[in-house]
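Running log. JK asked me to keep both predictions on one page so they can be read side by side. First protein, sequence followed by its tokens:
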Amino acid sequence: MDFWCSTEQLLLYALLFFASVAIFTGYLAASFKMMIMVYGGGVLVTILVLVPDWPYFYRHPREWMQPKTVDTSSNINSRSRSEVLRSSSLNSKRQNQRLD
């Protein structure tokens, strides 16, 4: 990104700005309906400006890590769920027999 904050931060700041403007307007007009209308208009403007995938916001995309490959030759990964459950129940039975 070429500017000091990300799109998510701009969205947050815009919504906070319109919320404060709406509260101030609603207080001055002494009207809850006016407050809701101002805030709804602000949310609509924010959505129209920031939510679309504008190319301006993604001129320099972030570098992500490359996915790791999974080792399929591992003994644990190749066993089925029933085999794992069966072996764990056998181990717990063996431990119970040792305690007796």
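And the second, directly underneath as requested:
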Amino acid sequence: MSDAVNNNAPKSTIPSLDACLAELKALITGAHEACLSVPEMGAEDFGNLIESIKEYGLLIPILVDRERRLLDGRRRILACHAAGVRLEEAMIDETDETPEAIAETNFARRHLTQDQRAMNATELLPSFRDAAKKRKMAGGEKGA
């Protein structure tokens, strides 16, 4: 398989997530910490994503939880902004998946060293602990 690089992709500056989310406050309330823990993509890959969205539109929806917090799609939001594509409700899916499960899936797709994986796991540990505590409490309530 070839690692084709789009040499024509723009060398775009990456917009601020906070600024993009401020524009989307009616659709997305903020970003979950698990989403923010996923490593950034490089500038070249980001430029390729912008070009793809310009050509094909947003093909993979943005994922939010029931509280409308961003779980997956941080870079797609930024690329849509840079490409001039306005996000609409139909481009956003609500999921019951845990933020930690989605973050783990994103980590698996990234090409990270063992050190980078360990550092990211350390950053996610508080979120995993909170999720486990909530599951434990919910389990206790069912058995009562």
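Observation for JK regarding the second prediction: Helices lie at 17-23, 33-36, 43-56, 74-83, 99-109, 114-143.
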